[in-house]
Design brief:
Blueprint lengths: L4 E5 L5 H12 L2 E5 L3 H8 L4 E2 L12 E4 L4 H9 L13 E4 L5 H13 L3 E4 L2 E2 L2 H6 L2 E6 L2 H11 L3 E8 L3 H29 L4 H8 L7 H11 L11 H17 L5 H15 L18
């Protein structure tokens, strides 16, 4: 690929395994930064070097990946006084793996373009297990040439890579992906409770739904593994993260003149779960509160 070094910023639940796959499968030097020293210590075993700060990952890197909690943090780390834009060089590429607002992404793309660099969006879908096994789905917003450049790197942690169009379109697709996931989670949660209170075993219900037209990834994962079992761990995709992504979808709906009533209903459930202390738990935890008695 003609590259010598990869930078990586953000080593959380998804970032750490993605960074590990990059280091193992490319054989290139990988320099990473996170405020938490623990993932850096674990990644050192795989040859990942620790950077002193976010800016230090940029120096000497051909491509810099970001895996951060929100678009607001991406904006700050790029455009802040000590941000990436201040030290980026012509020809370098920043790949945002986070889920960020579409307008923020387009603005950053334009700002980096002024310096001869590229900022593209490549938000990821699926689970931590998929990040570990290298089977994520990644939706990329970039020009064709930049997409071709970064695709082999993304392929180290993703089995499905979709070029959605220019900068920003990857975020559109990812935000809508999550909106559909959240709305489907509400539907299967409602079905479980109604069926249970009507005398139908939830395991039988979900198994039967999986054999018909109601089958889905959400049913088999969020439904069977979480809603049915009551397992809502922390350090998974929490209600607070889900609410953040849903707010991006609602902003996009408003800007495009769409009355997204289903998404607004889900937003209400997220708010209620947070108010009741479940904000840090896996987002299907909203099923706990869908009772009137």
């Amino acid at each position: 690929m003609g590259m010598q070094q990869i930078g990586f910023i953000g080593l959380g639940v998804m970032g750490e395994p993605m960074c590990r796959n990059l280091a193992k499968k490319t054989g290139m030097k990988v320099v990473a930064f996170d405020r938490d020293a623990q993932p850096l210590e674990r990644l050192a075993v795989d040859g990942v070097k620790t950077a002193a700060n976010a800016r230090a990952t940029v120096i000497g890197s051909d491509v810099i990946f970001l895996s951060l909690p929100s678009g607001e943090i991406v904006h700050q780390i790029c455009l802040g006084p000590e941000g990436l834009l201040a030290c980026i060089q012509s020809g370098q590429i920043v790949v945002d793996l986070s889920t960020s607002p579409v307008e923020t992404t387009k603005k950053l793309g334009a700002e980096f373009e002024k310096k001869g660099a590229k900022f593209i969006d490549a938000p990821v879908a699926r689970t931590r297990a998929a990040a570990e096994s290298g089977t994520l789905s990644v939706m990329v917003g970039a020009d064709a040439a930049t997409f071709d450049t970064v695709k082999p790197l993304i392929a180290t942690f993703a089995s499905d890579i979709t070029h959605c169009g220019p900068v920003g379109t990857g975020q559109v697709v990812k935000i809508l992906n999550n909106m559909v996931v959240f709305e489907t989670t509400v539907a299967i949660s409602e079905a479980k409770l109604i069926g249970e209170r009507s005398g139908v075993d939830p395991a039988l219900l979900f198994d039967t739904l999986s054999k018909g037209s109601a089958d889905s990834f959400v049913l088999r994962n969020h439904g069977m593994k979480s809603v049915m079992t009551g397992d809502f761990p922390e350090r998974a995709f929490s209600v607070e993260y889900a609410r953040k992504d849903l707010n991006y979808a609602l902003q996009l709906a408003q800007s495009t003149g769409v009355d997204a009533r289903g998404a607004k209903v889900v937003s209400g459930w997220f708010e209620e779960a947070i108010d009741k202390g479940d904000g840090q738990k896996y987002h299907p935890v909203i099923s706990r509160w869908m009772t009137t008695s």
